[in-house]
Amino acid sequence: MKISRNPENIHPPVAPYVHQIEVTGPNRWLTLSGQIGMELDGSIPEDPVAQLKIALDNIRKNLDHANMEIQDITKLVFYLVSDMEAQQRKEIINDFLQGHLPCTTLLYVVALAAPAIKIEIDAWACKEV
Questions:
Q1: For residue 25, how many other CB atoms are within 10 A of its CB?
Q2: DSSP string covering 13-72, please?
Q3: Which SUPFAM superfamilies match (predicted)?
Q4: Count of structural domains, the chain
């Protein structure tokens, strides 16, 4: 079964998509739409580091809403528009992952959905039933 959701504790979608689709079976799979550094009120800070922290927090909020944890993340894909100091980026991501090591990909792209968006993160998670 597939369940589409837009948690109330995250900003509404900014285009025709849902924040998460959960697939159930022997394992519960959760696929998130790309999470950006947008606050619940729709604001997006200019600083890409702040956007990274908010986007990761939005992933955490999606996981919480689906009764999953950081350790259930199986894949993260990071899309970055502007350069960010690598060590600072790694520290922020490591703090978020709490020692968990999912598969990850990091890409630099020319642009994302709107000029204000500097970071977008795709995430997949799976939990044993």
A1: 8
A2: PSSS--SEEEE-SSEEEEEEEEEES--TTS---S-HHHHHHHHHHHHHHHHHHTT--GGG
A3: YjgF-like
A4: 1
Domain range for 89: 2-128
DSSP 83: -
Q: At 10, phi and psi to the nearest 5?
A: -130, 150
Distance CA 120, CA 127 (A): 23
State the average pLDDT for the chain. 94
Size (the chain), residues: 129
- pLDDT confidence of residue 20: 92
What CATH number has the domain bearing residue 96? 3.30.1330.40
Q: Which residue reads 């992933």 in tokens? A: 59
Rounded to whole angstroms, the Cα distance separating 98 from 107 reads: 22
Task: Read off the pLDDT of residues 1-27 as tens digits, 9 standing for 90 and up.
Answer: 778 899 999 999 987 788 998 988 899
Model confidence band, residue 55 (pLDDT cutoffs 50, 70, 90) = very high
- pLDDT number for residue 21: 87
The reported pLDDT for the residue numbered 14 is 87
